[in-house]
Amino acid sequence: MLACSEQVPSRDSELLDPLSIVVTQPPYDEMRLPDGSQREHYRRYAEWLAVQPPSRIAQRRAEADSLFHRLGITFAVHGADEGSERLIPFDILPRILPASDWAVLESGLKQRIRALNMFLFDVYSDQDILRAGLIPADAVLCNSQYRPEMQGIQLPGGIYAHIAGIDVVRAGAGEFYVLEDNLRVPSGVSYMLENRKMMMRLFPELFASHSIAPVEHYPDVLLNNLTSVAPLGILDPTVVLLTPGASNSAYFEHAFLAQQMGIELVEGQDLFVSDDGLFKRTTRGPQRVDVIYRRVDDDFLDPLAFRSDSMLGVPGLLSAYRAGRVTIANAIGTGIADDKSIYPYVPAMIRFYLDEEPILSNVPTRILRNPDDLAYTLDHLSELVVKEVHGAGGYGMLVGPASSQAEIEEFRHRIIADPHRYIAQPTLALSTCPTFVESGIAPRHIDLRPYVLSGRDVTVVPGGLTRVALREGSLVVNSSQGGGTKDTWVLES
Amino acid sequence: MLSRTADHLYWMSRHSERAESLARLLDMHYRHSLLPHDTGHLDQDWLSTLNALGVMDDYLARYQRFETGTAFQYLATDRDNPGSIVSCLWSARENARAVRGAMTAEMWETINTTWLDLKGRVANPDDATGADFLDWVRYRTHLWRGVTLGTMLRDEAFRFTRLGTFIETADATARMILGRAGCALSVASTGSMAADAYAWTLLLRSIAAFEVYRKVYRDTVTAAKVTELLVLRRDVPRSLHRCMEEIDEALQDVANTRSHETQRRAGEMRAQLRFGRLDQLLETGIDQYARSFISRIGDLGERISADFLVPGSGE
Lengths: 493, 315
Hints:
The complex is a heterodimer.
Chain A: H1 43-50, H2 54-71, E1 90-97, H3 99-123, H4 128-131, H5 137-141, E2 163-170, E3 176-182, H6 189-202, H7 204-209, H8 218-228, E4 239-242, H9 251-261, E5 264-266, E6 271-274, E7 277-282, E8 285-289, E9 291-294, H10 317-322, E10 327-329, H11 335-338, H12 346-354, E11 361-362, E12 366-367, H13 371-379, E13 384-388, E14 397-399, H14 405-417, E15 422-426, E16 432-437, E17 440-449, E18 451-454, E19 458-460, E20 465-469, E21 483-490
Parallel strand pairs in A: 1-21, 3-11, 4-5, 4-9, 9-10
Antiparallel strand pairs in A: 2-3, 2-18, 6-7, 7-8, 12-15, 13-14, 13-15, 16-17, 17-20, 18-19, 20-21
Chain B: H1 3-33, H2 39-53, H3 56-63, H4 68-76, H5 85-98, H6 105-123, H7 130-151, H8 156-190, H9 193-206, H10 210-217, H11 223-232, H12 240-254, H13 260-275, H14 278-284, H15 286-309
Helix pairs in contact in B: 1-2, 1-5, 1-7, 1-8, 1-9, 2-8, 5-6, 6-7, 8-9, 8-11, 8-12, 8-15, 12-13, 13-15, 14-15
């Protein structure tokens, strides 16, 4: 078996990754038509907004800030003052999607996740897709995200990515592209839920006048799915949420989801493996655990199997997992399906496993291990986005149109030295949505992360997390650089 | 429930309770300082309190010599003193944050808001001194108790929260009695009985028990009756008897295979309070009794930790 030893940066902060697409043409405005009039699905909202006194809006914005602080809806900042967790800025102007757009997204996302789960099953069993030559075998087998330990394990329901956060952007003509499939420990769903709660509290009248599809059942769907993938023969499974602990940047979300599902929030030190399985240490002695919803990366799950210096995991967890005594969601080794080097092959997976045409497009991607793609890319570096594979977004990336000649030349050398490490994509115009900024309301670039849940069925809760780059012209939704979030409304009619 | 979760809940409520007890104690000193007195008497009072809290050495190590101003600061806002009000509220909040999923959203919101407000107060020293600050601490801890009782499911998590509260209250009441008894003795030796009665009155007021005392005894304040009220009466919320009743009952609800001896000791302490006699207690001496109680409640706290909260790595 081939093996690679590259270190992969932690995904803890993947929510904070910058977007990688740069504007080269007038972007699609989510609210307004090119002639300046409102799009149909924003019409009622715009009428409401036009008659709101500015003082009321200002007061509501301040109220939102103070509530988020009080409720502690924050992310922890390393090395910051005690108790000074940061807020992700919240914009009260919602991102609205009409039912027709959502129908396309929903079916496309479900199709994509089905294929990705089938791919993972295949990769860790017979590897038909590699033998069919649709994906170069070494791109999978010599990828640090491929986990040979997973080979030949039977997972309940054959599901690997139980929870997926698929990053979707909309380009110049309004068409959707999938930018990235997050299949490891996608975060951010708590903001989807809390943003909605906040909007309902601040502007109840808008919910009376719009038919907005609810998202509040997300924790129920998630818990149902987790219960349904328990090891065979367990009737009333115990599900826990495994967190790296209170200093993790997404700790609020871990605590929030555990509480919403009514399951225990555990750290590695609370669990142990014995001959018959996995147990938690309780005030009444050891109790069995059947399903782990883990928010800890593969590398840290089991110091006996992966990183031996990890204090976050449970020694022996992998052997209990391999013996089928416990289900881990998401499964170990899902990173092979969301790696940037595998991303270009997702449309081929959909055709191979489902015999369907992809409903959602990939961003056209050049794979620089191919000599033709490499030659083209080197000729067009100033127009392209070049991304390093085997790494979280934002690391080792060249945004051609936004880079100096010196930066481009420096990156050119890196590409030539090891083309296998890179892919290249065209720069797309990212859609914009009106947003409250200091000077009033102005367009800002946005993306969308819907959450796709797989259990007995595949479910997409209508909506997702809309991230917004608050700085003018910026495409970086990274919250340390002025990125924020919006409530996302899917209209039912 | 998880031992670690129970541990955080237990210490969260202990720290919150300790903040309240300290506020009450400081309130007593504050009221005392408003009376006509000679400085030596007031200092005596403070020294007795610092001794009863068992922090005299630490205090002197930090501040070299005694002054009322620094004593107040040491117990109220000193972040280097892990036992100050501010440190206790911080610890309560950090324990809550570690298990925020195990409590109701309203509990978390209350404890978090307390901390956010406190940060604002500490940033402005005028807001963190004197009676107004102590009132604020009491108000916030009342709110905390209310939201706990008003929203929490009566499950194991609730029992461990209660255990923390009453172990801490019992300890605080015993220390208050010890501090007052230590001081009262030295005053009594100078023959100032009126001052002595007044000092016990201040203690009653600081724990909101003065009206209770009047209602129960319809009599002037004496050390003996105050002791009876705060030790033996089971209907007084902060009395040792009341606390032991709560502890004993909570322990029965969470009993496990290891906790037999802990239950027995709690039951024994409760029985002694239930059937104890005031004259015997006074014969032992109030300060002697309080010292012995403090050591037994400390032992109980350690046993609770060992049995439930941080069981060794053995399974």
